[in-house]
Design brief:
Number of helices: 7
Largest sheet: 5 strands, mixed
Strand content: 35-45%
Oligomer: single chain
Distance between the termini: 22 Å
């Protein structure tokens, strides 16, 4: 699915753009053709683009919208909530200085600081509070809903309910400071908030105070502070400030349940959902537990890799991978499984869960120097002790003995900082259906995996964890398999049997965009060809190599194309947006079908975010993206300056 030559980009017809009207009617039907529409507001790079059915919401920047006081508070420094009905193109300026927003069943909730907005929302006579407002679909102005705890101001939608922290501490046994609400019909006034209870028997019998930590696929991860509620993890002291608890947002009768383990707030969590049940993975902090959780004496003799036999861990400064099966945990809270695998409490480091041949596997990237005492453990046998090694263990039976994969040939040093959607890195690991896919750093691994004796490369490898005799495969493709590298990779937000990446021409040894060099990266949607062999359907167009923004929706691919790297020879790029230079990044889409050609959709941005935003649950109706006026040299929002980011949107045909 390559283009015949790079100049074919210039032959793609441009689309007609239309400015929305102001009707309030909701039209939820998809568009007949792509029509990209402008909004009149400048936004900050960090603005959320929230989409719920036909509704789009974002935060307009007063300073980036012609220094306009949109909420009438006398300054031009606020972020103001805006809602768009993409069916009628009706735009509603909600006129409230907003810190964050959440959609729940087409009703928009706003987190607002009274001090920012210079307005008393809760009627208590001062402007010192953080409050929660709502806007039902038929309304044009926000309504006060609740006062929030300013120290725990996160508001989240978890399945079919909204959860937030009340400023009042609980006073009764099994009470909490959490409140929840639902929206019974799309776009309706929210139901009265109800308190969330727990199964936690705290020492003072006056309930527990919770902070919202993470949310993943309907599971809410909460933390408890022992300095407020006493010893909650049974280690004999009340000093831990982040003891883990869980709450199922999809169960109307659910209660908060304590995991009873101390976690590091910088670490990550993940879940794998199977119907109404979850496998839950997280890191437990040894210092918080006052225990050596990866002591080999806790495990089966075959648990420890051979290379670590003389470097058994004896410290208590690690973060160790644990998992639980939620339904089993509710019945038997003691069944929280310690794998003994060490992770790192960094926001850029991720945990991984996947199912392979009906078995669940949990994965983590371990730093060798954390794996044992002294210098650590040389897991991959390269005579160094500072590599980042991907490790995994089966996480199917809560009563089974944990036996992580321990073979030296399975231990690979990864390129964990390869860019992706989520923060500065993708983590270097993709759980793709039944296969682990990782990006290996040959320089760190000190092994030649591709037969190139002159250059250390970053190489994709894949393995089927459910196959006990399987190994990593480095040669991919359907006709003539060979080594493959990427400069950017991320999970596919809509398809578990694929991921998204920017394929590196250099390692591939092929000029995929036919511009006379092999230094570019092109968009691809890798899939399994067979077992642990990948295939790479994609398109011969150079993308921004470290921010490709590749994503898929409704059978289409979207990506961030680089003018500079699609060149006509001599290093001269193609001026795709017609602004007289070749320095920009533009949005293209393509039908994921043989012989399809990319279609230009407008100037984009260079931010480390997906090229477009859309609903990932169900069938998306609307897509949106940020247009960079300075790159296009166009004052799209007509504020007299051409230096803003402006929201554009479209309805899928």
């Amino acid at each position: 699915m390559r283009m015949s030559n790079s100049s074919a980009l210039l032959a793609v017809p441009f689309l007609l753009f239309a400015v929305g009207c102001t009707a309030a009617k909701d039209e939820s039907k998809p568009a007949a053709t792509f029509q990209i529409r402008n909004t009149p507001d400048g936004v900050a790079p960090s603005t959320p683009l929230l989409i719920d059915g036909p509704w789009l919401a974002y935060l307009a920047s007063e300073s980036a919208s012609g220094n306009t006081d949109m909420n009438g508070d006398g300054d031009m420094s606020d972020a103001i909530a805006v809602r768009i009905n993409t069916g009628s193109q009706g735009r509603t300026m909600l006129g409230v200085a907003t810190r964050s927003m959440v959609y729940l069943n087409a009703t928009l909730f706003l987190v607002v600081s009274e001090a920012d907005d210079k307005k008393i929302w809760n009627g208590d006579g001062d402007m010192n509070d953080l409050v929660l407002l709502y806007v039902e679909s038929a309304a044009t102005t926000p309504t006060f809903f609740a006062t929030l705890d300013p120290a725990a101001a996160t508001v989240v939608a978890v399945d079919d309910r909204l959860v937030y922290v009340d400023p009042a501490a609980p006073v009764a046994e099994f009470a909490t400071n959490l409140m929840s609400t639902t929206v019974s019909t799309p776009g309706a006034i929210p139901d009265m908030p109800v308190p969330v209870t727990s199964t936690i028997d705290d020492a003072a019998d006056d309930g527990v105070s919770l902070s919202i930590w993470r949310v993943d696929d309907g599971m809410l991860f909460l933390t408890m502070d022992e300095t407020v509620d006493g010893d909650l993890n049974g280690d004999g002291n009340p000093n831990d400030t982040t003891v883990l608890a869980l709450y199922d947002g999809g169960d109307v009768a659910a209660q908060v349940t304590s995991v009873g383990k101390a976690v590091d707030p910088l670490s990550n969590v993940t879940v794998l959902r199977d119907g109404t049940d979850w496998t839950v993975a997280f890191l437990v902090n040894e210092q918080g537990e006052e225990a050596n959780l990866n002591d080999p004496l806790l495990f089966d003799p075959t648990w420890q890799p051979f290379n670590c036999a003389f470097a058994a861990d004896a410290d208590m400064d690690d973060d160790v991978l644990h998992w639980l099966l939620y339904s089993d945990f509710l019945a038997t809270p003691a069944n929280v499984r310690n794998t003994g695998l060490v992770g790192r409490a960094l926001q850029s480091d991720k945990l991984y869960l996947m199912e392979s041949a009906g078995r669940v596997f949990a994965g983590v990237v371990s730093l060798e120097s954390d794996e044992g005492s002294g210098a650590g453990c040389d897991l991959n046998g390269d005579s160094t002790w500072n590599d980042l090694i991907f490790r995994w263990v089966e996480a199917s039976d809560p009563l089974a003995t944990p036996l992580p994969e321990a073979g030296e040939d399975k231990m690979l040093a990864l390129a964990t900082t390869i860019p992706g959607f989520y923060g500065p890195s993708s983590g270097g690991v993709i759980p793709m259906d039944a296969v682990w896919v990782v990006l290996v750093d040959e320089a760190a691994d000190v092994y030649n995996h591709d037969g190139d004796d002159t250059t250390d490369n970053l190489l994709l490898a894949a393995i089927v964890p459910s196959n006990p005799v399987g190994n990593w495969n480095f040669n991919h493709g359907t006709s003539n398999p060979g080594p493959v590298s990427v400069t950017w990779m991320a999970d596919n937000l809509t398809e578990s049997n694929s991921f998204v990446a920017a394929l590196d021409e250099d390692v591939l040894g092929s000029d995929e965009n036919d511009d006379g060099d092999k230094i570019d990266s092109v968009p691809t949607f890798p899939e399994l060809s067979s077992a642990n062999i990948l295939k790479f359907p994609g398109y011969g167009v150079a993308v921004k190599e470290d921010d490709a923004g590749v994503t898929t929706a409704r059978g289409l691919g979207f990506f961030r194309v680089s003018e500079k790297h699609n060149n006509l020879g001599g290093g001269v790029g193609i001026d795709l947006n017609g602004d007289g230079d070749d320095n920009d990044y533009v949005l293209y889409r393509i039908a994921r079908a043989p012989n399809a050609s990319p279609i230009y959709m407008g100037t984009l941005n260079s931010l480390p975010i997906p090229s477009i935003t859309f609903e990932t649950e169900g069938v998306p109706l609307v897509g949106a993206f940020l247009y960079d006026e300075a790159a296009a040299k166009v004052d799209l929002n007509k504020d007299g300056l051409a230096n803003d980011l402006v929201v554009r949107y479209f309805r899928f045909p």
